[in-house]
From TrEMBL:
<comment type="similarity">
    <text>Belongs to the dTDP-4-dehydrorhamnose reductase family.</text>
</comment>
<protein>
    <recommendedName>
        <fullName>dTDP-4-dehydrorhamnose reductase</fullName>
        <ecNumber>1.1.1.133</ecNumber>
    </recommendedName>
</protein>
<dbReference type="GO" id="GO:0008831">
    <property type="term" value="F:dTDP-4-dehydrorhamnose reductase activity"/>
</dbReference>
<dbReference type="InterPro" id="IPR029903">
    <property type="entry name" value="RmlD-like-bd"/>
</dbReference>
<dbReference type="InterPro" id="IPR036291">
    <property type="entry name" value="NAD(P)-bd_dom_sf"/>
</dbReference>
<dbReference type="GO" id="GO:0005829">
    <property type="term" value="C:cytosol"/>
</dbReference>
<comment type="pathway">
    <text>Carbohydrate biosynthesis; dTDP-L-rhamnose biosynthesis.</text>
</comment>
<keyword id="KW-0521">NADP</keyword>
<dbReference type="Pfam" id="PF04321">
    <property type="entry name" value="RmlD_sub_bind"/>
</dbReference>
<keyword id="KW-0560">Oxidoreductase</keyword>
<feature type="domain" description="RmlD-like substrate binding">
    <location>
        <begin position="7"/>
        <end position="284"/>
    </location>
</feature>
<dbReference type="InterPro" id="IPR005913">
    <property type="entry name" value="dTDP_dehydrorham_reduct"/>
</dbReference>
<dbReference type="GO" id="GO:0019305">
    <property type="term" value="P:dTDP-rhamnose biosynthetic process"/>
</dbReference>
<comment type="function">
    <text>Catalyzes the reduction of dTDP-6-deoxy-L-lyxo-4-hexulose to yield dTDP-L-rhamnose.</text>
</comment>
Length: 285
């Protein structure tokens, strides 16, 4: 019996999500080509074409991104290069090579004024530079005319990278107290669970846009409280408003994502974020 192994090229492979995606595809027996930012600059079209012609992947998973939300306000051009132009380069090269593209996007393409979860066809209206750059990336991928999965996700945490859970635990350990905003609501997502869903989605051939997060929603304050409680930390945690904690970039107040039709496509929804958080903390604490 012949086992068909796919060749998977991952951009941004040194990042938190890129590492999880590489582990997941390797676990499935695929040939994985994890390329870091130094090994492949997606803003360089000639380099992207050369890499795809050299490796000839069946699937490209784009985990490369400019993720500094506040930094994008002052360096919008760089955010556009990485989050907008880079995905276009990948999409055009994938079309040329007849490869599928899995592109990671964000809840921040929405303005956050909707009190219910956003569906995949709800109109985007980003309120910060980062969100605008990610929206351009989505539009560039769709306009390229190839085969793609655009996957919007949110509030990532997991091993191998900087994330909110690690930050709040460190703050609690070092200071014994923390203030966290309690008027922004979203869907925390573990990179391990997301990577599994990405691999399953890439095997379906059901191209299009998807929302993939762990089930359920919470505020940053409640997320912090759950993290500290599960880790057994006794920390004085205080809620505050977004207005009391000003940042250079505006944040959407409510950026929950409706997963339909994820279950109808891959057969399941991701587990609750509390379950994912407990599993993550069992590894790092």
């Amino acid at each position: 019996m012949t086992i068909y192994r796919k060749r998977i090229l991952i951009t941004g492979a040194a990042g938190m999500l890129g590492q999880a995606v590489a582990v997941e595809f390797q676990r499935r027996g695929d040939e994985v080509l994890p390329l870091t930012r130094r090994e492949l600059d997606i803003t360089d079209f000639a380099a992207v074409r050369s890499a795809l012609w050299h490796f000839r992947p069946h699937v490209v998973v784009n985990c490369a991104a400019y993720t500094n939300v506040d930094g994008a306000e002052g360096d919008y051009r760089q955010a556009l290069l990485v989050n907008g132009l880079g995905p276009r380069h990948l999409a055009l090269a994938c079309r040329e090579m007849d490869a599928d593209l899995v592109h990671i996007s964000t809840d921040y393409i929405f303005d956050g004024s909707n009190p219910v979860p956003y569906g995949i066809f709800d109109p985007p209206d980003p309120i910060n530079a980062y969100g605008r750059s990610k929206l351009w990336g989505e539009q560039s991928v769709a306009a390229a005319g190839g085969r793609y999965y655009i996957v919007r996700t949110s509030w990532l945490f997991g091993p191998g990278g900087k994330n909110f859970v690690d930050t709040i635990l460190r703050t609690g350990r070092e200071k014994g107290e923390a203030r966290v905003v309690n008027d922004q609501r979203g869907c925390p997502t573990c990179t391990v669970d997301l990577a599994r869903a990405l691999a399953d989605l890439a095997a379906t051939g059901c191209y299009g846009t998807y929302h993939v997060t762990n089930s359920g929603s919470t505020t940053w304050y409640d997320f912090a409280a759950a993290s500290l409680a599960m880790a057994g930390f006794k920390v004085r945690l205080s809620p505050c408003t977004t207005a009391e904690f000003p940042r250079p970039a505006k944040r959407p107040a409510c950026s929950m994502l409706d997963p339909f039709p994820l279950k109808e496509t891959i057969g399941y929804l991701l587990p609750p974020w509390e379950d994912a958080l407990q599993r993550y903390l069992s590894r790092v604490t």
